[in-house]
Amino acid sequence: MTTIRKAVFPVAGLGTRFLPATKAVAKEMLAIVDKPLIQYAAEEAEQAGIDTLIFIVGRTKNSIIDHFDKAYELENELALRNKDALLKIVKDTVPEGVNCVFIRQSEALGLGHAVLCAEAAVGNEPFAVILPDDLIYNDGDNCMQQMVDVYSKHKASVIGTQTVDMSESDKYGMVGGPKVEDRLSMVDEIIEKPAPAEAPSDQAVVGRYILTPAIFDILKTTERGAGGEIQLTDGIAALRKSEEVFAYSFEGMRYDCGSKIGYLQATVEFALKHDELADEFKNYLQALDM
What we know:
Layout: E1 6-11, E2 31-32, E3 35-36, H1 37-47, E4 52-57, H2 62-67, H3 72-80, H4 84-91, E5 99-104, H5 111-116, H6 119-122, E6 127-130, E7 134-137, H7 143-154, E8 157-163, E9 173-176, E10 179-181, E11 184-186, E12 189-192, E13 203-211, H8 214-220, H9 232-239, E14 245-249, E15 253-256, H10 260-271, H11 278-287
Parallel strand pairs: 1-4, 1-6, 4-5, 8-14
Antiparallel strand pairs: 2-3, 6-13, 7-15, 8-13, 9-12, 9-13, 10-11, 11-14
């Protein structure tokens, strides 16, 4: 296929780094200003032309399912009060023509296993994987749109990457390979969380992928790797032995909202871009006596 129609969102994790906030609420439902992380991710997919959103959820993630469900009572109440702008916001949570699929991951066996859970819904076509913890902002084409454009040109799997300090290589999957064009390289090597001396380059894998369906058969036989989990990076390492895989260093700013400091940075910077809040919030920050 020449386009990407489906995106997988692995959202079954427990979010332990944000306890107690995530004791009863999915971490992907934590808001950046007035919108939950999972909605930023969904909108990125939709803006890239994706019309089927596949959520891999755990048993504690009902709030995600509820968020993308139709809220009849809320919509009726807003309509009766002539709150048209708010009604549009609620209805646009799932735009017309976009479908949501929810699949339960019964065991937390890693990102590779979460992706494998989506096989029946994806079928025999290329698909995107988006990790909502990685919130990526760009004034122009968003990260997934950039990667869809790369896929359309090369018809091969694409991994989103970012340059990181080599001292942080043990926090990421790291890739290496020859440069093909500006921001694009072949993947010759991909290693999950290597020590700095073993990292193949300074390019770290972030939470954006476009994968061919060949990855599913590979993941079925992928043994547990780092952390005792089925690692998607191990599956991709095997995939590149039979077909081309590219690494794309995306344009944009990434916020690691899986960490508290990244979450706070995103909250502040998105508030400073917010149409209603930017000026007032900027004045507040300037007035702080630190």
